Amino acid sequence: MPASDLDLLIEAAREAGRIARGFFRRDPGIWQKPGDAGPVTEADLAVNRMLHAELAAARPDYGWLSEETPDDGARLRAERCFIIDPIDGTRAFIEGDTSWSHSLAVAVGGQITAAVVFLPMRDALYAATEDGAATLNHAPIRASAKAKAGEATLLTAKSNLSPDLWKAGAPPPFTRKFRASVAWRLCLVAEGRFDAMLTLRPSWEWDIAAGDLIARRAGATVTDRQGARLSYNAADPRVAGVIAAPGPLWSTLREGLIS
Questions:
Q1: 97: CB partners within 8 A, 6+ apart
Q2: Total-model pTM
């Protein structure tokens, strides 16, 4: 059995990748979730079953929060909790795009202490612990040092740049890019390949928990859209959007938004 939570998550993420690759671009079964909650595939469910079985066996006292498991609230009685997205970017997975990931985290007392985001088709494994460096394939990574919006790239959906969301009637002059996986967007900020990320929609904990820690340990500031630090394993596992960026760019985004 792996000695640390991080080693456990890494081992589980690699096994998740092995399972998901078996379905990728092979016409997996697809269903629509109730309430217009989006698609789910055979791969999501197979990965979720494996992760739940393996992680619960290794840490039976940890709670469990996953996008693909009905939430019965039992996790709220646990000090430590797994927060899992079996496949983040399911639509990309369905379309045959490689920008999907497995997002695995452990929360202790509401804060993330170990995190892994793995993109198996890109052989990219991001990881962090609460007191260690953020890494990509075991090499340390750092967030961008850019300070001016006009020189920076922002990972965000086009809808987040609508003029009615910004105090000045227009967003700061970032160059906009987009990636399907929210977890990967946070990791791309951690890696410094992009300078900032912004989502203004209510965000599920399983989409952001792992990427939050990885980005913060790489030097980025990560908060909700109001500027509050994120907390996890909440009764309602959603947060009020996410801003992730180096300090000066974070301030530009936070101060420019209409609250």
A1: 89, 180
A2: 0.97
